[in-house]
Design brief:
The protein is globular, with a radius of gyration of 19 Å. Strand 13 and strand 14 form a beta hairpin. It has one domain: Nucleoside Triphosphate Pyrophosphohydrolase (Alpha-Beta Complex), CATH 3.90.79.10. It contains seven helices and 14 strands. Helix 1 packs across helix 2, helix 2 packs across helix 3 and helix 5 crosses helix 6. The model has no long low-confidence stretch (mean pLDDT about 90). The strands form three sheets. Strands 1, 2, 3, 4, 7, 8, 9 and 10 form an eight-stranded mixed beta sheet that branches. A four-stranded antiparallel beta sheet has the order 11-12-13-14, with no helix packed on it. It has a two-stranded antiparallel sheet with strand order 5-6. It has about 300 residues and is an alpha+beta fold.
Length: about 300
């Protein structure tokens, strides 16, 4: 991983990320991670959650009839009153679209109430149609689907700092949690993602510690914040009980070491914590780790 040192003055691009969760056969919370293609312009080779930038088409008024939750309710759940309601609902649409495109998971119901979960060929065809450039709204209308926006629980909002550490782009990303629909199994698309894995948050962080996988700071800290939860329902319930915290990391050099600090850190402009876990990560030996080493994630 190469650290960027240049300021990026562009407005952060609105985007959405869906953190898919499931309970393992051992009844442990697991999260689905995708390894981005090494040639990807953003986070090539890094394990991430499904997600991507918001498209103008995600915010069209026609989506009102394709979502199972009213737009004003989705807007309220995000906790961003200054946001246009259609853009707010568009973030849900973007997360649902990316989940289908990147890992073949479709959170939706057929209009006749038949579960889409029982139609794997339909999901596969819709995923291919998205890759071929078809309009998502037209595909949903064609298949007479109602997107399950109710399954998405807003969790956090991450805004890339002025000097991004792992990219030359800035994003304003809303993270959503969702349980994997029963009967579906995500698979990476072999286009944007070339590998995928289910891991408990602890296993993922341990694999990062062991150099088995590469993670970027938002994914690292998100996994740390999933550590306390024993199962999917406890994580979703916790997210429902709070407004999504806004995480605006701030970067600085600490005796020549690139450091990212988070709200609540003595060096951060916001003194109230937004996250569990360490309040800063340092770029040491090609990876970001907390003070005290990687075991501090589990303290």
């Amino acid at each position: 991983m190469i650290v960027n040192s240049e300021a990026v003055h562009e407005t952060p691009r609105a985007s959405a990320t869906l953190v898919l969760l499931r309970d393992s056969p051992r009844q442990e919370l697991e999260v689905f991670l995708l390894r981005r293609h090494a040639a990807s312009a953003v986070l090539g080779g890094v394990f991430v959650f499904a997600g991507g930038k918001l498209d103008a088409a995600d915010c069209q008024a026609e989506w009102v009839s394709h979502l199972n939750v009213p737009v004003n309710v989705l807007h309220q759940r995000l906790g961003e009153p200054q946001l246009d309601p259609l853009q707010a609902s568009g973030l849900y649409v973007a997360a649902l679209r990316e989940a289908l495109e990147e890992c073949g998971v479709l959170l939706a119901h057929a209009r006749d109430a038949e579960l889409v979960n029982s139609l794997p060929q339909q999901r596969k065809q819709l995923q291919q149609d998205l890759h071929d450039g078809h309009d998502f709204a037209q595909l949903v209308a064609r298949e007479k689907l109602s997107l399950d926006a109710a399954a998405l629980v807003p969790w956090s909002r991450w805004i890339t700092p002025l000097i991004p550490s792992v990219s030359n782009k800035r994003f304003d990303t809303r993270f959503f949690l969702a349980a994997l629909p029963q009967g579906q199994e995500p698979v990476h698309d072999n286009v944007e993602a070339v590998e995928s894995v289910w891991l408990t948050p602890r296993q993922a962080l341990q694999s990062y510690s062991d150099h088995s996988i590469s993670l970027a700071p938002p994914q690292i800290m998100s996994l740390v914040n999933l550590l306390p939860f024993a199962n999917v329902q406890s994580a979703l319930q916790s997210a429902r009980l709070q407004l999504p915290p806004v995480v605006l990391p701030e970067t600085f050099d600490d005796h020549g070491v690139r450091t990212i600090c988070y709200p609540g850190d003595p060096r951060h402009s916001v003194q109230q914590r937004a996250l569990l876990g360490p309040t800063r990560l340092r770029f040491v030996n090609g990876r970001f780790e907390p003070l005290g080493g990687l075991q501090a994630f589990f303290a």
